[in-house]
Design goal:
The protein is an alpha/beta fold. Helices cover 44% and strands 14% of the residues. A 4-stranded parallel β-sheet has the order 3-2-1-4, sandwiched between helices. Strands 5-6-7 form a 3-stranded mixed β-sheet, with no helix packed on it. Strand 5 and strand 6 form a beta hairpin. Helix 1 crosses helix 8, helix 5 runs parallel beside helix 6 and helix 9 packs antiparallel against helix 10.
Length: 264
């Protein structure tokens, strides 16, 4: 758990980076980290526009949440269509898919930014990401994308605490990475597969699930990873999965559910 004593310095550095820079475009996925960057920039009166990439890698609920939040903040923003499945390496679920996806996604964002007269592009990567398996970070560095949270030393815990203290809506929002992460590396993925998993995960959220991932391992093997606190909705969730054609789903409760396919 963090506190102002630990995140205060990082927050001060973040404010300085945002205020002293040129006008910028902030890539907002709808997750907590990128929302926090946009929230702080808006709060500080920074001249910026937000951009949201919409595509089959996100669930319908996530897209609607991002649209609603951006509109509610009165932030100038633009939605751009981006289909990562148009990339061979992403469609093949290559172990480096994140690198290729970020390279294409932020090239699109930088091109759009230049069209509106802006050179500076920011994202929501944080200091905790630097210690995890994140191939996409290399692509961001190569493209000159700024990651002010990471550069300010702000960890995921810092951001949650700061967001709570500053009363950012949904400060405790669970992380929901790209739907491609639900499938093993080197398993070819198409839009129908992503849509099916996305619809099921949205339905599980409606039931009250929060920290979870539905991992489709292949050959009829499916794993439902859960953080703590799901016992009261687990039976309903398993019934829903069975109704959707997922039978014999294994359940794994763990404090850490990210990076399943990157574990040794």
């Amino acid at each position: 758990m963090s506190s102002f004593l630990t995140y205060g310095l990082g927050l001060a550095v973040l404010k300085e980076k945002l205020v002293k820079g040129d006008p910028c475009v902030i890539a907002v996925s709808g997750g907590l980290d990128s929302r926090f960057v946009a929230f702080m920039a808006h709060r500080l009166g920074v001249e910026f526009r937000a951009v949201f990439l919409s595509g089959p890698h996100m669930t319908a609920r996530e897209k609607q949440w991002a649209h609603t939040w951006l509109t509610s903040q009165e932030i100038p923003w633009q939605a751009l269509e981006f289909d990562p499945l148009s990339l061979d390496t992403v469609r093949a679920n290559d172990p480096q898919r994140c690198y290729h996806c970020k390279q294409a996604a932020f090239t699109l964002i930088k091109d759009w930014a230049r069209e509106v007269g802006v050179e500076r592009v920011l994202d929501g990567s944080n200091a905790s990401d630097l210690a995890a398996h994140r191939p996409g970070l290399q692509a961001l560095q190569e493209l000159g994308v700024e990651s002010p949270l990471a550069e300010s030393g702000l960890t995921k815990d810092d951001i949650r605490e700061a967001a709570r203290d500053l009363e950012l809506e949904a400060w405790d929002q669970p992380a929901r990475p790209c739907l491609l992460t639900r499938f093993p590396y080197s398993t070819p993925v198409d839009a129908a597969m992503l849509q099916r998993v996305g619809e099921i995960e949205d339905a599980l959220v409606e039931l009250g699930f929060r920290e979870f991932r539905l991992r489709v391992l292949g050959e009829g093997d499916t794993l439902l990873q859960l953080g703590s606190g799901h016992l009261d909705v687990l039976e309903q969730g398993l019934d829903l999965l069975e109704d959707k054609g997922f039978t014999g789903v294994r359940v794994q409760e763990s404090d850490g559910i990210s990076g399943y396919y990157d574990q040794g």
